Amino acid sequence: METQINFFSEDIDFEITNSDSKASWIENTIEESDHQLGFINYIFCSDEYLHKINVEHLNHDTYTDIITFQYNEQEEPVESDIYISVERIEENAKEFNTSFDNELDRVIIHGVLHLMGQGDKTEEEKQQMREREDYFLSLRGK
What we know:
By secondary structure, the protein is an alpha/beta fold. It has helices at about 20-30, 45-60, 85-95, 100-115, 125-140, and strands spanning about 5-10, 35-45, 65-70, 80-85. The protein is about 50% helix and about 20% strand. It starts with a strand and ends with a helix.
């Protein structure tokens, strides 16, 4: 079966490691959450590239690690382009004293959780988001 999880890079030279297992992990996360996958395109880019998207499309003049564009009105099926700043992941990994790969996986699954309706605006939602991130991170490679 052809995966509907795709990995690309834009304006930087970056290739994700273990893309097949990472795609399976993302698909399993969506399935276990009782959602259906349409497609997700992950686009890895620089801070500047993502900042430009943030300004032009969201009117936010800030740097961020991830921007998620959902392509359907409802949550089913999950269809999205997810832009991730590799530079932000590197900085966050240092700040949070974790590995680049662990921080990248946390951001990858964070975007998926948003697509499935998980918010993170209130303190309660932030706590739920972190718990769900930790849970799905624990399932990598299983």
